[in-house]
Amino acid sequence: MKSVINRSEWRSHMADGVTSVSLLPEHIRVDAQMRDRVCASYPMFINRFFLSLIKKAEDPLWRQVVPDAMELDDDLPEDDPLAEEEQSAVPGLIHRYPDRVVFLVSGICPVLCRFCLRKRMAGKGPVLSDADIENAVCYIRSARAIREVILSGGDPLMLEDDRLCDILKRVSSIPHVRTIRIHSRVPVALPQRITGDLVSILRRFHPLYLNIHANHPNEITARAAEACAMLADAGIPLGSQTVLLKGVNDSFETMEALLMELLHIRVRPYYLHHPDPVKGTGHFRVPVTKGLEIMRRLQGRLPGVAIPRYMLDLPGGGGKVPLCPGYVEQDKNGMLVVRNYQGQRFYYPSG
Ligand code: SF4
Q1: What is the reported pLDDT for 185?
Q2: What is the mean pLDDT of residues 208-213?
Q3: Residue 216: CB within 6 Å of ligand 1?
Q4: Are the CB atoms for 271 and 309 separated by under 8 Å?
Q5: Residue 4's pLDDT is what?
Q6: Is the CB of 118 under 6 A from ligand 1?
Q7: Domains in the chain, please, with CATH?
Q8: How far apart are CA 196 and CA 314, in angstroms?
Q9: Cis peptide before 207 (omega within 30 of 0)
């Protein structure tokens, strides 16, 4: 009975979602006409739960989901700077690294994030057909170097239980696939979707990892904590992914609060992504130097387990590289000159 109640709860949050600025509650509606023009190019969707977390116009959650006229007026030319389309082996399957693939199983999202890496398709589908899914599974079966399948989208946890279970069954039955990872915004943006039924399905496919996309401490609600507890209690290791976003989380204090909140709800911070130069997202961009400065301040002030890696995704499908503040200043006459987190200088034998 409980899961039936939960099912209807997340569905009603989706059904009552907002698709235009004109329909936002008055206290968070700003420049509706101008902003609604953006929706013709880049659709808008905010489910009712996420909407309830927005306190005022231009707060960090509002900025993530409410269209901005600047989306139509930036100088970033590419809608797919990471060459995902080029690196798609078959429709819906990105094969960039030899041993893993990203399987875009869902075209549905709990909210449409204005900074999305896949802004070119967010809210527009395409939803993979049964034939596409079969084709992708055949490809994975034939490519024996693939050890990990990452389910992404859209949001994989927005699929119906049966559909998701079927995909997990097919992928996990391939002998050379050792692990499955799910990337999802659902545990924070629509935690009601984490039902008992869904968790019972997921726990059948261990080793299964789940990376949760969260960008601001205000997203870490009691409901999100409850959802993460259900997942963690089912033995699913939880990690987080955060995108560094101007006006949302580009300060040490906000990042610190987010990372500590994540750790508290049993989510291990995994990646802090430098924002990708996707057409229509220029107003979210932050200089790399600022990201490095935040990372420098996190070191030594937060438990190591709370510090994510700061990642840059190289253009043209070059792959991800970690960015790290330089602590080693010199390597001279067999001695390293190293600065600690307080800026003090130390000497350390290099050999
Ligand atoms: S939920 Fe994920 S895929 Fe969907 S719009 Fe947000 S970032 Fe993009």
Answers
A1: 98
A2: 98
A3: no
A4: yes
A5: 46
A6: yes
A7: 75-328 (3.20.20.70)
A8: 39
A9: yes
